[in-house]
Write a structure and sequence with these properties.
2 domains, 4-stranded mixed sheet, 60s Ribosomal Protein L30, Chain: A, alpha/beta, 11 helices, Alpha/beta knot, 7-stranded parallel sheet
């Protein structure tokens, strides 16, 4: 825990931040990132709050814009975090409580907001070499579920999350929140087609297993983790596409109660941990 003196010194740069209004380009950029309204090619997300920025600071992520709203009450820990974020940011500004209310209606001052660039990962570099475990998510529609899948991949020490036919954007702020910030450290590979994704996995020596409630092979006897393993899960409504099912083992998680299937993230966790246990025993 920093001392009171350390906190005072570290927050001093915040007093020198120039105030800007709602029409400033950087304020508008944060607003668009928060609303998931930037182009898909603009690989940034909106981050808010203390815990989220501590995650950012522990990563190598680039902070493009930092916005600090001091408010009328002291919050030394957040001020310390804000000072470090502002020092890392390419551009940092001060905003009023009125601007804050327009940007983030549920937030109260003091508040820290930022635009953070997500890392890009090269498929050839990530999948080749020592990679042994990959989660494939096909057709995921909801940002919250996508973020939970990122967090699940991190929990199992998966080497990557592969996305195909994705509707949800990895840059959506809900993905950052649901992943608890692990979207900054988990390689996420997005492919334009299932065929290209399968070609990369095949070339890297992965065996892919498709999660399917109607699959003929119970997951405990499917051979998960006997070599480089890709676990494929599908969308919340339609499941895994036929392009993934063709020629691959379809594995089922036996349902012991009345429900006929698990949430996509729960299914992914069961299969990934099964594969991870086998891989760790090799």
């Amino acid at each position: 825990m920093p001392s009171t003196t350390d906190l005072s010194l570290s927050s001093a740069p915040l007093e020198r931040l120039r105030p800007v209004g709602a029409s400033h380009d950087d304020v508008r950029r944060y607003s668009r990132a928060r609303r998931n309204a930037l182009p898909r090619t603009d690989h940034v997300t909106a981050v808010s709050g203390s815990w989220a920025h501590e995650v950012v600071l522990r990563s190598d992520a680039t902070v493009e814009v930092a916005l600090w709203c001091p408010g009328g009450r002291a919050y030394p820990e957040l001020e310390s975090t804000a000072a470090r974020v502002a020092a890392r940011a390419s551009r940092a500004h001060r905003v009023s409580e009125r601007v804050l209310a327009r940007l983030q209606p549920e937030a109260t001052a003091p508040a820290l907001l930022s635009v953070v660039r997500l890392p890009h990962s090269d498929p050839a570099r990530v999948l080749n070499g020592s990679a042994r475990l990959v989660l494939v998510a096909d057709g995921i529609e909801y940002a919250g579920n996508l973020g939970t899948l990122v967090r699940t991949a991190d929990a199992c020490a998966a080497d990557a999350l592969v996305l195909t036919r994705a509707t949800a954007r990895v840059t959506h702020p809900k993905v950052f929140a649901a992943s608890r910030g692990t979207v900054l450290t988990t390689p996420v590979l997005t492919f334009d087609s299932v065929a290209v994704a399968r070609a990369y996995l095949d070339a890297a020596g992965f065996t892919a297993y498709v999660a399917d409630p109607a699959g003929a092979t119970p997951y405990r006897s499917a051979g998960l983790g006997t070599g480089p393993t890709a676990v494929v899960v599908g969308s919340e409504g339609d499941g895994v596409s036929d392009e993934w099912r063709e020629g691959l083992t379809r594995v089922a998680i036996p349902m012991r109660g009345r429900a006929d299937s698990l949430n996509v993230a729960a299914s992914a966790a069961v299969l990934l941990f099964e594969a991870r246990a086998a891989l760790d025993d090799v």
